[in-house]
Each structure stands twice: as structure tokens, then as C-alpha cells.
Amino acid sequence: MSTIHEITLKVKEDSFLMAALENETRNKALRAIIETLRTHSEEIFAANAEDLKNGEKAGLPQPIMKRLKFDQSKLDDVCAGMEGLQTLPDPLFRTLLSRQLDEGLILKQVTCPIGVIGVIFESRPDALVQIAALCLKSGNCAILKGGSEAAHTNRILFDLIYQAGVSAQIPAGFLTLIENRTDIDELLKCDEAIDLLIPRGSNAFVQYIMNNSKIPVMGHADGVCHIYVDRDADLEKALPIVLDAKTQYVAACNTVETLLVHRDAAEAFLPRLSQACQKDGIKLLGCPRSMAYIQGEPCTETDFRMEYLDYILTVKIVDDMEEAIAHINRYGSHHTDAIITQCDEAAQRFMLLVDSAGVYQNCSTRFADGFRYGFGAEVGISTGKLHARGPVGLSGLVTYKYKLFGHGQIVSDYAEGRKSFHFKDL
Amino acid sequence: MSTIHEITLKVKEDSFLMAALENETRNKALRAIIETLRTHSEEIFAANAEDLKNGEKAGLPQPIMKRLKFDQSKLDDVCAGMEGLQTLPDPLFRTLLSRQLDEGLILKQVTCPIGVIGVIFESRPDALVQIAALCLKSGNCAILKGGSEAAHTNRILFDLIYQAGVSAQIPAGFLTLIENRTDIDELLKCDEAIDLLIPRGSNAFVQYIMNNSKIPVMGHADGVCHIYVDRDADLEKALPIVLDAKTQYVAACNTVETLLVHRDAAEAFLPRLSQACQKDGIKLLGCPRSMAYIQGEPCTETDFRMEYLDYILTVKIVDDMEEAIAHINRYGSHHTDAIITQCDEAAQRFMLLVDSAGVYQNCSTRFADGFRYGFGAEVGISTGKLHARGPVGLSGLVTYKYKLFGHGQIVSDYAEGRKSFHFKDL
Question: How close A45 comes to chain B (CA, Å)?
């Protein structure tokens, strides 16, 4: 049996071939995958029943059991996603720049796949299908490690996708499944072969990956998102937005954790918020000034950095928008932050100065999601500032190379003045 | 006196303000910098004379002394570079995507600065001016550490640029000079404040930076570039290209280190190459088969990974283009690799399959350079595949954020089917 190191080197070799596959070949493979998943749906559901049974035995919490479930509706969702993906324009071979440097010397900047991407994801088996499909469409090889709770479902989904891909002339290295948790540590050492790691999961897990590998990591550890209710906020809008951002799916990274309220809006807004939160079971932690208006407990500075992923919301009154911005840039995680205001100038300034992947006016932070941005799907959300930021879809899975077409040109002619550059964008 | 850590935190705060500066403000500062450098040219040259005197005393090698020199011609060059830079379109505030997600819910993907960039560069004082100017134009704060040989020249250049920038209403954190080598280790720990490191210099130094910081690093350690002379090469073109790529500036990262020759071209090409190399003082290291055609010494596998930065060239005969591609992907550094061929189909395949930042047909690898690509200048050349690849100019110094403009939209309406997305690119 091959070691993880050997496997990744083999995948690396195939990744070069992936870069030359036509869009139609990749789309054909996507269609073959849809067909095989539909044909073998009963076997997939049976494998999933096994995982669910084991999960129940192990006493997994309900939210995880829910994510683990892969039924007809989940199958329809991932197939619809892949249908959409194969109609999307090819992310590869796009010319970003076409420039004549001199007569007969043409520079082109053209998109190409990143290469080999390692994705470590949580208990949702539908994530396996989505990630495999996004990587295939973008010409990347994917090495996947899913949650062990979903082992049976992941195994059959992988087998079906792999077979369909290979039958459709995709190189065998396009998809690899890793099943042992100990293999992750091996994977982290394969910086020769793996171009990018995308870990999804708990803060501690993502930090672990970042601290233990030389491979570039795309993703986010924290999701400490803010909503700032401005002096000029429409409070009728503000309240449902805050409640949605907190409770629509409390365990998501894009839920709001801290609410900042302009002092002039505090008296009108906070008592209403407090009442609504009591009704919805949201516990409030307030700064000293805000405690005059809300039912809750006093917060500490530590709370400003907390990603609760729970029905808890920190509340702070600020003197002006600048204080709100400074707070967000200092304590936030540069994920997604919103301003509620009717003043477009204030919103514009907030959006310029807040250093986050998503900056919103008058809507819920929960919109930070690849599907909701119209990307079809996402491999994850990036809070890093390099390469890709925010929800990462196809465009975040490609890079580019510079192609230079000449007719014998040499640099010494230009360095020594016999020729000179004549730049012209084509 | 502040610690490096305190300094970088202060710079970070100013970096948020930099993101809101208008293009005209940044251009005005560039013009002020040009003016002050011209006005104080005598003082700059005097400081440089000091550095040159010390360099001579210390017995610095001639190539370094040459790079250290900052005279009227270097001043004219950097001022011309900045003149060009201030006429270039603003890299910030560019809308990359504008999409209606639903009625009254508009998503915009807009370019913005990366933030705080640490650049550690070699003995050329003109690099300080170029890097400061590129970072200013792209709205980034730069923390610079130059070579100690250039300490006097760097100090006066920094003082002049800093004063001109601040007088032109640029936040004081836009430019910081670090002068002690020991401060570099402090800098590497400031991952809270610094968004990106760009080390320029020796392979060992760049590796040291990469291994000792959590901050993302852009740059290249190795420059092992190849030229492949195809069966269908025009040998009249091939010879001057190889000689230019090896000797035009032998210490550059984009010089050729390994020459791959198709077996059908070996007999016609290699004896001519060997003769020319003997004339130019280039030592050849050959594979067993090639030794029949060249004057040189046998090479080992180690030589295939060597960046000589010297008048040495490794020569290997390959059976076909696929072998050449596999060799380049295996032993190369993914910097810049060229094919010499009259067959455009072969070139196209070579350019698809070679996994490098630059893939060239029928021209010298020495063209891999920001100025020669028409970028005005470069902060460095990246062999990483994420964010920016190849020569990095303004466009590699920006990232983007997603701005979402709503009117009170909440996610639960979409999740629970009361509303649905209507994606439309604007």
C-alpha cells in the first residue's frame, strides 16, 4: 500500500494533465457523475443509514445528525448544483491580459488550475460532492478527508464519483479520499505536492492546520461578525436583521456576535432589541452604558473576541461610526460586518474603512455564502486577504500563468538600446 | 523608543485609512516625492558616496558595488518610473463583479489594498524608491528593510519620501524604515499587523523567512529556469536565445540553468552551442548522451536542481517533449521556462503542461521582469501559485472585498422559501 506521500506525488503528476483538459471533457464528467449518483441512489441511502445508525449509537448531537443525513432531497440538491456548474463558463483558459511588448513579442496572462488541493471537511457528505465537483470543473485535483461519522456515505459517494470521472477520461489523480484521521498529519507534510489546503471545521482545528503545515491555507479560523446600528438607521429594518443574523443558523461562521449601537440610537433601539431577544432566547452581554437599556449581563473585553456560535450577543454603545469601525478592525475576524443606516455616505465610508471580506449595508451577515452570492457553491469562506477573500467558488480555485510568444527575441537587444519596448494592450 | 511590535500595530491602524485615499491624493504624493528627490539630489549622492566608500573599505565585490551606486542616471530612472506610475489607472476601487442577488440586493466585488506589506530587499537603493512608490500607489503601508551596505542612501531616501508623503496628506504609517538586521526577527512575529512579506535576496534568506513566520510570503527562493530546444526548433534562433538567457545578467533569477534538447536536434545544435559557450566562458555540464557533442563535464542529478547564478549550464538530451515537460515540472522551480520550436501546436501543449509562472515560446527567459511586462516596476517575482504569480506589479498588491447593499433583507426569508434569489449580473 502506498504512503500518503507517494499518493500525493502521483496526484501531482496527474495535476499537470488536468490543466490541459477541455471544458467539455470536464463537463461530460460532471454529467456522468450526476447520472451515476442518481442510478445508485438506493446504495448511497443505505450507506448513509449505516452512518446514521452508528451516529445514534454514539449519541451524536442532533445538529450533527441532521448534517450527516443524505437523503433524496440532499441528492437532488447536489445534482442540481452540478447541473448548474456544468453550464457555468469555463474558469480556465481565460485571457486576463493580452499585451504586445514589442513587434512580434506577445504576452498573455491566462487562467489555469492551482493544481492539487487538500480539503478537510466536516460531517456533511454533500460537502464531498460539492467540493469534488468544484475542483473538477476548475481542473484541480482534490484530496479529500471527510468526517469519520460519515465514513460509509463518503466512501460510496467517492467510489461512484471516482469511477464516473475516470470513465469520462479524467486522470485518476483527480480525486483521492483519505479515511484515517492520522493521515491528516502526513498530508500536512506534503508541501512538495499539495498547492493549497482548505480546512473546514472548528477554530481549534483550523488553527492546528495553519500551525503545522508549510502548505498555504485558505479558510477562516474565526467568524466574529458585527452589526453596527448607526444614528441614521431605520430601526424597523435593524431589528429583524439582527435577529436573523443571530438566530437563522446559530452555528454558522457568518452569524453576528457583537452588536454596536450609536449612542443616539441606543434609547430607541436597545429596549426593543432586549425584548425581542428575551422572546427568542438570546442572552445579551452588555457594555456598562448599554446595561441601562437591556436585560442581560455585563460583558468583558474577552467577549469582544468571542465566536459564541450560540444564542449569545454582545452589545456595545459607541459614540460615533469611527469608534464602531475601530472596534470592528481591532476585535473582529475580518469575515463579514454590516452597517444599518439610511445614510449612504456613512455606509460608503464604513465599507471603505472596515477591513473585512464582506461589508454590508442594511442586510443580514448570513448572506455571506457562495450559493447566496450566485457562485453555485463554495469550497469555503476565506478571511485571508491574499488570493481569494470571502466565499470561494470557481474563481478562487484558479491561478494564472504568463505566456510569452516570441520570434527569437533576446533581452540584450533591449538592455543595450538596439531595440526598445512598445507596449500596446491588445 | 517603540518596539517593532508597537510600530507595526500603529502602521496597521493607518493602513485602514490608506484604503480610503483617493487616487489623486496618492498621485499628488508621488509627484511630491519626485520633486523632493530631484531637489535634494546632491545630498542623496553624498550619502551614497559614503556607502560606496564603506563598501570599498569592506571589499564588497564589484557586482554589489554596482548595484549599490545611486547616481543621476539611477535617480532619473526611479523618477521616470514614478512619473509613469502616477499616470497608470487606479488599481483600487475597481469593480470586479456587480451582481443583483435579488430585487434591491446588490453585490459588488471591489478592489482594495492588501494592508501592511513588509519588504526585505537587497543592496540596491533604487529598490527602496520603487517599492515605496508601488505600495503608495496601491494604497498599502510598506515596512522596508534594506541592505546594510546602503544604510546612508536608504536613510536619506526614506526621510525625503516620508516627509513628502506626509506633507501630501498621506497617513504617517504609509512608510517605515527598519535599519537593524535583528529587527527582521521581530518583524516576522508581527503576524497580527503585517499582511504580507516580500523577501528579496538569496535562496537561503528567503527560505529562512518562509520557515520562521506565520505571515504569508510572496516571492521565490529558487530560479531554476529551463530552455527546451524542440525537434522543430529554428536553431538560428535557439543559439542566441540560450546565450542571452545564460549570460545577459548571470546573477538574475530568470537566467537559464538547464538546457533540454530533443534527441533529433542534438547533433545539429549541441556542437554549435558548445563552441559558442567555450567562446563566452560558459562551462557545460552534460548528461551521458550529450557528452558525445559537447566539451564539458558530466552532470549529476543534483545539477538538475541547481541555481548556479554563474557561467554554468547543464545540458540534457530528451527523447521527446513529454520528457522535457516532466523534467521541468520535476526539477524546476516553477519560475520561467521556454520552448524553442516552430511548431505552434507543440508550443501550446508545452505552455499548458509546464506548471510555471512564465511559459515562453521562442524568446529568452530573461524577459520575466515587471518592467519588461509593461508593469512599470515590480516588487518581486512570485513562484507561488496563490494570489500573484510571476513579476508582481500593482495588480499583485491589491485584494478585494465584497460589498453587499440591501434594504433590510434577511436570510430566513430565502431559507424558508418566502423569497428566492434572482441572480443577474449588472
Answer: 24
| Three-class secondary structure of residue B87 per DSSP | helix
Q: Is A359 helix (H, G, I), strand (E, B) or coil?
A: strand
Tell me how close the Cα of B57 comes to any Cα of chain A, in angstroms.
31
| Planar angle of CA A227, A229, A234, nearest 5 degrees | 125
User: What is the predicted ipTM?
Assistant: 0.91
Report pTM: 0.91
Q: What is the CATH number of the domain that holds B79?
A: 3.40.605.10
Cβ neighbours of A315 (radius 10 Å):
27
Find the CB nearest A404 among B107, B360, B415.
B360
DSSP assignment letter at B90 = P
CATH number at residue B298: 3.40.309.10
Q: How far apart are CA B36 and CA B164, in angstroms?
A: 7
Cβ <8 Å between A404 and B367: yes
Q: Is residue B129 part of a domain?
A: yes
CA dihedral B386, A355, A360, A399 (to 10 degrees): -10
**H or E element at residue A51:** helix A41-57
Pair B164, B245 in one domain? no
At B120-164, the pLDDT tens digits run 988 789 999 999 999 999 999 999 999 899 999 999 999 999 999
A178 with A288, same domain: the answer is: no
Counting the structural domains of chain A, the total is: 2
Alpha-carbon distance A352 to A101, whole Å?
A: 35
Chain B residues with CB under 8 Å of A372 CB are 101, 411, 414, 421
B300: containing domain? 225-367
